[in-house]
Design a protein that fits this description.
- The chain is built from eleven helices and twelve strands.
- With 294 residues, it is an alpha/beta fold.
- α5 links the parallel β5 and β6.
- α8 crosses α11.
- It is globular.
Length: 294
């Protein structure tokens, strides 16, 4: 039995789709099962509720061999540690209670670097990994840089103004990865009962690109000029506050972006194992362009 959390989220739904191609029994935890297709609901077992609820996870993890774990975004949390570590604590109790063997979790790059000590979401993700490891399960933390899919938050300015914004220098080359590749790596691990112990698996995409280079690729794929414009970090803080983020969660995002600009995501060299196939150009053609044209 494999249990999937966040089965309607961007990564979780792709993990679930990959797992459905196997014959493994699958159980999901979903706040709103109606967001799953009727075909999917007919193939899986559903536990309704939040995976921060000890009763829900004890029920969901009973008899489970493997769990896909993702702490969902909580823009209103009282602290970034509460959003990751506090949210995950009931699950770790349930891992022990239910004798779960293997867990695959979504985390971030940066372990072992000085920059990770005050990097907001990254710092909290690594603390979450430590908590899961302390539960005694075999664990694989999928460690990622920024997602290509984050560009989708700026579909409107790209579509209407031909511009997108980030608080990052336009010439800074960094790795990015597609969520589809993350899901593929996660599903492969969940379906493989042979691994044990605790380790991280980096998902770095095939190349490092700057935002200026990404803008050029967007222009070529979309057939219209697109440019990148660097925004001040304080403008990001104001934008997040205007979108309803709590002060600690806005600060966590700012801290992560500052650490990224100082080289946090460039500390780990790309290897054949960490290189995933989807290029930014392929992602633009398959994901961004249909969104722009819709």
């Amino acid at each position: 039995m494999i249990v999937v959390t966040t089965p309607t989220g961007n990564i979780g739904r792709q993990v679930l789709r990959n797992l459905l191609e196997s014959s493994e029994p699958i159980r999901v935890i979903a706040r709103d099962p109606s967001r799953l297709s009727s075909q999917t609901r007919g193939r899986i077992e559903i536990v309704q509720g939040s995976h921060s609820d000890i009763a829900v996870v004890n029920h969901a993890f009973a008899g489970a061999d493997a769990v896909f774990w993702l702490a969902p975004a909580d823009h209103h949390a009282e602290s970034v540690e509460a959003a990751y570590v506090g949210f995950t604590r009931p699950a770790c109790d349930a891992f022990r209670n239910c004798d779960v063997k293997r867990v695959v979790g979504v985390s971030a790059l940066g372990r072992g670097t000085a920059l990770a000590k005050n990097a907001g979401h990254v710092t909290a993700s690594l603390k979450m990994d430590d908590l899961i490891a302390s539960a005694g399960v075999s664990y694989r933390a999928l460690t990622m840089p920024s997602f290509m899919d984050n560009v989708l938050y700026q579909v409107e300015p790209i579509k209407n103004q031909g511009v997108f914004f980030e608080p990052t220098p336009g010439d800074l080359k960094v790795p990015t990865c597609a969520t589809g590749d993350i899901a593929a790596v996660a599903a492969k691990l969940l379906l493989d009962p042979s691994w044990s112990g605790q380790d991280s698996v980096s998902v770095l995409g095939p190349e490092d690109l700057s935002f200026n280079e990404m803008a050029q690729i967007m222009s070529e794929v979309l057939g219209k000029p697109v440019r990148f414009q660097e925004m001040p970090v304080e403008a990001l803080r104001s934008r997040l506050a205007g979108a309803g983020y709590s002060q600690p969660m806005a600060q966590a995002m700012v801290d992560m972006m500052v650490a990224k600009n100082e080289g946090l995501f460039n500390a780990e060299p790309r290897t054949p194992r960490s290189t995933t196939p989807t290029s930014f150009r392929q992602w633009c053609e398959g994901v961004l362009k249909p969104e722009i044209l819709s």
